[in-house]
Amino acid sequence: xxxxxxxxxxxxxxxxxxxxxxxxxxxxxxxxxxxxxxxxxxxxxxxxxxxxxxxxxxxxxxxxxxxxxxxxxxxxxxxxxxxxxxxxxxxxxxxxxxxxxxxxxxxxxxxxxxxxxxxxxxxxxxxxxxxxxxxxxxxxxxxxxxxxxxxxxxxxxxxxxxxxxxxxxxxxxxxxxxxxxxxxxxxxxxxxxxxxxxxxxxxxxxxxxx
Length: 210
Ligand code: TZP
Ligand code: MG
Prior knowledge:
The chain is of the alpha/beta class. The chain has helices spanning 22-32, 46-63, 73-78, 93-99, 118-122, 145-153, 171-176, 186-189, 194-209, and strands spanning 8-11, 36-39, 67-70, 83-86, 104-109, 125-128, 160-163, 181-184. It has nine helices and eight strands.
């Protein structure tokens, strides 16, 4: 298996933050144990997205937590972010790597056939997307379930990031099924106490991995 040091991945959605300050929520999450953050704000225009990315990068640099940018290659490069996450309708992973070889690149797996493609092969991690049905992203293809994680795990050595309705209750089972890292939006962004929610998720992960 290729090395992947991250265990708890916060994917942002300001709309899930219950009206609280976005940067406060992210900072609390990091203090609680989030070790990787992706800026994913579908509602923002390009200028607002770039502004938010710059400010988020500054915050995360203080904690030594890498920033991944969703979809926007130029924003990721301009902000000096660690990497990029793309889906099937975004810039192809091979094209991203050609332009930016050191990019920490994530690619969402929505069909089993994608695993055998050059796009999956050049990516640094694969997102099992979604593991469970979620209100946060409804336009999905395959709801993988725990069996889907195990099936993907048996067919690739790439680090697997699981995403989709992951919470404190199912976190351990998702790791036990073969995921290396858990990605969440609402379990942290919408939690009453984001730091505590992150710490509890971390603890659930560590119970399986230690
Ligand atoms: N991709 C697949 S599911 C999802 C994304 C961005 C949303 C996950 O959100 P939540 O609130 O953790 O279910
Ligand atoms: Mg995308």
